[in-house]
Design goal:
Amino acid/polyamine transporter I; mainly alpha; about 425 residues
């Protein structure tokens, strides 16, 4: 129906309409603040993927509580990193890959895209293999077929995103995250954890080069490069259904502050859940699998869990592993699309990309590669890719020209650069140990 009230006095009506629109935009986030939660939960799935399971179980079974501190420190780093990624997308209206694509020359942009794609491929290998192992444990399905089924189910999840949009996809991923949490926390409640030794594990230390390698693997599994790239895009897109202007310059500063506050809650809650799950996996392995033969593989760890804690806990664990693989591989494919679109301005349908990125994992399964070894090494590759995502993120969010009044405070920027230094130092140590050993 036409709005005849606007006809007699168009100039006044335009002013009133503009003021009403602005007021509606300001009210929208307050009226449905909870609706802004979700992007960080999607990113958090990357922090509890099958690579985490392999790295954390291996660390706990071989070295007990020694490396608890690695998970605590890594998760604290992740909270800061993911918030900065969300902040970048929200304040600038562009993803991290987009901003890099705008600033890098053609050769540098392509080289950066290539390393980011290698990281995405390593991510996908871990997630598909994890899903295949879970299907094998639950139903005896051969690993190659399990990988194929995992890929097919992840395609169905991506169809939800393609046809229904981001929010329904978030709901499905959050549901899977709940299953993951139950699957990996259940065993902790029936394990005899030595809490005194666990507390001692908060003191940073190593025991030989192998623990450095494991720490790098745990770091790569906890601070995920593809999640850094993806979260900026998720945050950029998330506010649009609420009527908030797409262009950041059209927002008032109070509105942006409210959106950032919602993002802080989103990141904080989701990563506390992810961190708790990761620490629970290590504590479970340290308490129930320490010194048990064969626990250097997920299959062996599952068998040991069944022996020590019963078949029920073992089944719940395998279900959690399956949910982890299905959710994480879908998120990984989504992240790869964001990376490609931002850096080389090419869009490939998510389902097509899913098919292509499934191939390396299926090849590894077909040739009989030790799946747990492949999982742990994929996390090492991810660890090497973290600086490439993290350094530009810190530099961009610390740019007053780009971020305006929402530039990182000096304290935040200092802590962020300290995180970069720690991660780079660990990666240098990893390379030295790997090639000297």
């Amino acid at each position: 129906m036409p709005n005849f009230d606007d006809a007699p006095v168009p100039e006044r009506a335009a002013v009133v309409s503009s003021e009403a629109d602005a007021a509606a935009r300001r009210r929208a986030p307050e009226r449905g603040l909870w609706r802004l939660l979700g992007p960080a939960f999607v990113a958090a799935v990357a922090y509890v993927d099958p690579g985490n399971v392999a790295a954390n179980l291996t660390a706990g079974a071989q070295y007990g509580y020694l490396l608890v501190w690695v998970l605590v420190v890594s998760n604290a780093m992740a909270v800061l990193i993911q918030y900065l990624s969300a902040k970048l997308g929200l304040v600038t209206g562009k993803s991290l890959p987009e901003l890099l694509g705008m600033r890098l020359r053609t050769g540098g942009r392509r080289a950066f895209w290539l390393q980011a794609e290698v990281i995405a491929a390593a991510t996908d290998v871990a997630e598909v293999i994890g899903g295949a192992i879970a299907l094998n444990l639950l139903f005896g399905i051969p690993l190659w077929w399990g990988g194929l089924i995992t890929g097919a189910v992840s395609m169905a999840l991506l169809v939800i995103h393609s046809r229904r949009g981001q929010q329904p996809f978030e709901f499905v991923i959050i549901a899977l995250l709940a299953v993951i949490s139950v699957g990996f926390l259940a065993g902790l409640f029936v394990s005899d954890v030595n809490w005194g030794e666990a507390a001692a594990g908060l003191v940073p230390r190593f025991q030989g080069s192998q623990t450095v390698l494991l720490a790098a693997s745990m770091l790569g599994a906890t601070v995920m490069p593809h999640a850094i790239y993806l979260h900026s895009a998720l945050s950029r897109d998330r506010h649009r259904p609420l009527g908030v202007p797409d262009a950041p310059v059209e927002r008032d500063h109070a509105l942006t502050r409210r959106l950032l506050r919602a993002n802080r809650w989103d990141v904080g809650v989701s990563l506390v859940i992810a961190g708790t799950v990761n620490i629970a996996m290590l504590l479970l392995a340290a308490a129930s699998l320490r010194g048990v033969a064969g626990t250097d593989t997920i299959e062996g760890a599952h068998a040991a869990i069944q022996t020590a804690l019963g078949p029920g806990i073992a089944v719940i664990f395998a279900v959690g592993l399956l949910a982890s693989g299905l959710a994480a591989t879908s998120v990984g494919a989504y992240a790869g699309a964001v990376i490609m679109d931002g850096l080389i301005q090419k869009r490939i349908p998510l389902l097509t990309r899913r098919v292509v990125t499934l191939i390396p994992a299926l090849i590894l399964l077909a040739v009989g590669t030790n799946p747990t070894w492949a999982l742990v090494m994929s996390q090492v590759v991810l660890s090497l890719g973290i600086p490439f995502a993290l350094i530009p993120l810190v530099k961009l969010t610390g740019s007053r020209e780009l971020m305006g009044r929402f530039v990182n405070p000096r304290t935040t920027q200092g802590i962020a650069w300290l995180v970069v230094v720690l991660i780079v130092a660990l990666n240098v140590a990893l390379v030295v140990i790997t090639f000297s050993g």
